[in-house]
Amino acid sequence: MLENAIQALRRGDHAAAAEAAEAILKNEPGDVDALQVQGLARMGLGDADGARASLEQALARDPGRGDLHMALASLSMASGQLDAALAAASAAVEADPNHLPAYVALAHMALARGEIDEASRLVNLAELVSAEHPLTLLARGNLAQAKGEADQALRLLTQAVEKLPEDPTALSSLGLLHLQSGRNAFAEQTLRRALQADGQSRRIRWALVTALRRQGHLEEALGEVDTLCEGRRDPWAIAQRASLALELGRVDEAVAGYRDLLLSAQLNPRLLEAVLTGFAQHQRAGAACVLIEELLAARSDSDLLWRVRMGMAAQLGDDPGEIVDRWILACPESAEVQQHQAMRFEAAGELERAEAAADKALDKDAELDGAQLVKIRALLRSDPARAGERAATLLESRTNPMLRRELWRWRGLAADRSEDGAAAVEAWSAMAREPVPAALPPALDDPGSDFALASGGEAGVQPRLLWGLPGSRVMQVVELLRANDAVTLVDDRFGAGPRPDGFNTGRPELGPVDGDLPRWIAGVNDYGLDPAQVVDWMPHWNRAIDAGLPGARLLAVVRDPRDLLLNWWVFGSVQQYAFPGAQSAAQWLAAVLTPLAERLESRADTTLVLRLDEANEADARDALSGFIGIDPDALGAMPDTDGGRGGHPARFPAGHWRRYEGELGDVFASLAPLAQRLGF
Q1: Amino acid 24: pLDDT
Q2: What's the Cα-to-Cα distance from 667 to each of 113, 191, 412, 471, 569, rounded to whole Å?
Q3: What is the pLDDT of residue 416?
Q4: What are the Cα distances from residue 318, in Å, to 280, 323, 341, 530?
C-alpha cells in the first residue's frame, strides 16, 4: 500500500498519493512514512497547512529523521518562510550529518543571502558526502555562477541536468544561467523543460517571459503572462501584460489593463512611474494622457496624478495654467497646487499674488521647495536680510545639489542687495562648489601665430558667426535675430545633435576642431538652408575655428571682462559652462578674449565686438544690421532679456564688478589690461 502511494508521488499524481496515504493512516495513524507521503502529496496539491500538519506529526514521532526535517524545509521555502526553512534544513543536518539535500539547500539559501563564503563551506561539506551526486553538481554550479565563473557554472549545471533530466531545480538553474549569459534561445528551451516538471513555478515562468521578450517573441510571452494572471490577481503580471500589449501596438488593451491595475488599489507611485515609462518608450504620450485623465476622473483628489498631468502639459502642447485651474477646483486645500499657483503668478509678474500663494502653500507644508524659493525672492524685494536668513536656514536641511545652488545664489544676492560683498562672495563660492553636472569651459587652442588676412571664401560664401561670451548679453541678439526673416539663426550647436562639421568645440565625442569651409557649407545645406542667409551661433570661438573658416565674419557679444566674470559666476551661461572659481575663470576669459582682441586689431572689417552695455538700442541695431548685411528696418526692437524670476534682474548692470574690488581685487586686476585693450 505504501509503495503505491510512493509511486503515485513520483509520477506527480498527488491526489492518488494522498488518497493512498490516508488509507494507510486509517489503519495505522502513527505510520511515519505514510505521514511523510501525505505531507508531500498535500504540498503538491497546494495545501500548505495540511502538509505542515502531516510533516510535524511525523517529526513528533521520529525527530531523528533528517528527510522529515528536509521536507519541512522545502515546504517553508515554497511558502516564502525563509527563517523556518533555514531552521528546518539545519535540523536535518543535525539529525543526519550525511543528509546531502540539506547541505545543498543550505548552500542555496546562503547564495540567496549573498554569503559566498558560507555557501562555499556548505558545498565542500556536500562534496564530502558525495562529490559526483547531481545535487552536489547543482550546488557547485550555482556557486560558480555566483562567483562569476560562467564557463565552470555551465559545465557543472549541464552535468547536473544530464543526471537529473526532469528536475525543475536543475533545469531552472541552467536556464537562468543561459538567460544571464544572453543565450536566450537555450534559456527558453531549458526553462520550458523546467516548467514541464514544475508547471506551478512562477519564478521559472517569469524567467521564460524574459527569454521570450528578448527574442522578440511577444505573442508567446503574452501567453505565458496570461497563465501567470490565471487564478490570482498579481499586479506585476497585469502590468507586464499591459506592457506587452503596448509593445504589440494594442494601445486600447494596454490602457485598459493599466486602468484596471491603477484603479483597483491604493495608487502606487512606483507602479505609476513604470507605466508612464512604458508609454514614453513607445512614444505614446497621448495614450498616457488619456489614462491619466481617466484616473483623475476617479481620483481627482490625488496630487500625484495632477503632478503627472502637469508634467505632460509641455509635451502635449497643453496650457499648464488650465491644468492648475482644474487642480485647484479639485483640491482647493492642496499645498502642492498652491505652490504651482505661486510659481505661475510669479512667472506672470503678479508678485503679490505669488507671495500670497506661496505663504498658503508653506503654511500647510514647509518642505515645498518651489514655494520656499518664491518666498525668498519676495522677501528679497522688501527685506534682503530676511531673505538671506531664510535661505541660510533652508541650507541647513536641504541636500539636493541643484536646490542648494539656488539657495546659495539667492543668499548671495541678498548680501549683494545689502552691500555685504564679503558675504556675497562667500555664498557664490559655496554655490560653485555644489556638485552639479555641467560642462567645463572648452579647452583652449594652441596660441598659434598672428591672424593672417584671409580670402573671401569659397564661391563667394562668407560664413557669419555669432559668439557670446559667458556672462554676456548674447540672448538679446539671439532673440532679435530669431524674430527676423532676413536671416536664419542656426543654434544646433547648443543641442544634443549638432552638425558634425568639425567646428564643435567642447564636444570631444564629435572629434577635434578640424573643419573647413566646404564641410561647413555642406552641413548648412544638409539642413536645407542657404549658407548666405545663415548666422551660425557658436558656443565657443577660437583660433582653430578661425583657421578653418578664414573668410568668416565674426560678431562677438562682450562686456567688460570683469562684468563677464561676475555675471557668469552668479547667473551662469547659455553654454552651461561650470564656473571654475574666480581665479581660473579670469585666466580662461583672458585666454579666450586675447585672440578676439588680436583679430579685432588685424581684421576689423570682418570683426564686430558688440558692447550692448554702452550702445543705445538704435546704435546697436544699426551696427548689427550693417555687419550681417541686412536692412536696419528689417530688425525689430531690441528684446528685453534682463528680467529674471520674482521681479529681479537676470544680470548685474554694467560696472557692478566695482562693488567687489575689495574681495576680488587681484582677480580683476589680472583682467584690467585686456579690458582696456577691448575698449572698456
Answers
A1: 82
A2: 57, 69, 19, 16, 13
A3: 98
A4: 17, 8, 16, 34
**3-class DSSP state of 123:** helix
Domain-located, residue 382: no
In angstroms, the CA 156 to CA 163 distance is: 11
**Phi-psi category of 679—alpha, beta or left, where left has phi over 0 and alpha has psi -120 to 50?**
left
The pLDDT value given to residue 449? 46
User: How many structural domains is the chain composed of?
Assistant: 2
Here the cell at position 582 is: 574666480
Other C-beta atoms lying within 10 Å of the C-beta of residue 128: 12
Please spell the DSSP secondary structure of 423-441, one letter per residue. Answer: HHHHHHHHHHHS----BPP
Residue 460: other Cβ atoms inside 10 A: 9
pLDDT of residue 384: 97
Say what the pLDDT of residue 492 is: 94
**Identity at 38, one-letter amino acid code:** Q
Q: What is the pLDDT of residue 383?
A: 97
| Cell 503632478, residue located | 307
pLDDT of residue 459: 55
Give tens-digit pLDDT for 127-172.
999 999 999 999 999 999 999 999 999 999 999 999 999 999 999 9
Contacts of 124 (CB under 8 A, 6+ apart): none
Neighbours of 330 (CB within 10 A): 17
What 8-state DSSP symbol labels residue 208?
A: H
> What is the pLDDT at residue 97?
92
Q: Helix or strand or coil: residue 182?
A: coil
Per DSSP, the residues of 393-432 read HHHTT---HHHHHHHHHHHHHHHHHTT-HHHHHHHHHHHH
Distance CA 426, CA 445 (A): 32
The contacts of residue 504 (CB under 8 Å, 6+ apart) are 493, 498, 510, 513
The residue range of the domain holding 652 is 460-677
Proportion of the chain above pLDDT 70, given as a percent: 96
Residues in the chain, pLDDT under 50:
448-449, 452-456
Residue 616 lies in a domain: yes
Closest by CA to 582, choosing from 443, 449, 431, 363, is 431
Cα gap 596→441, rounded to integer Å: 17
Provide the grid cell at 424.
Answer: 556675497
Classify residue 364: in a domain, yes or no: no
Q: What is the CATH number of the domain that holds 529?
A: 3.40.50.300
107, 123 Cβ separation under 8 angstroms: yes
Residues paired with 535 in a beta bridge: 464, 489
pLDDT in tens, 595-650: 999 999 999 999 999 998 876 778 888 889 999 888 888 788 888 887 889 999 99
Looking at residue 454, what is its pLDDT?
Answer: 47
Find out whether 589 and 577 touch, Cβ atoms under 8 Å.
no
Return the DSSP state at 552: -
Cα-Cα end-to-end distance for the chain: 108
Pairing mode of beta strands 534-538, 488-490: parallel
- pLDDT score at 510: 66
**Final residue of a structural domain among 210, 229, 248:** 210
Answer whether residue 326 is part of any domain: no
CATH code, domain carrying 45: 1.25.40.10
Ramachandran bin of 655, using left for φ above 0, alpha for ψ from -120 to 50, beta for the remaining angles: left
The SS3 of residue 348 is: coil
Of 210, 245, 263, the last residue of a domain is 210
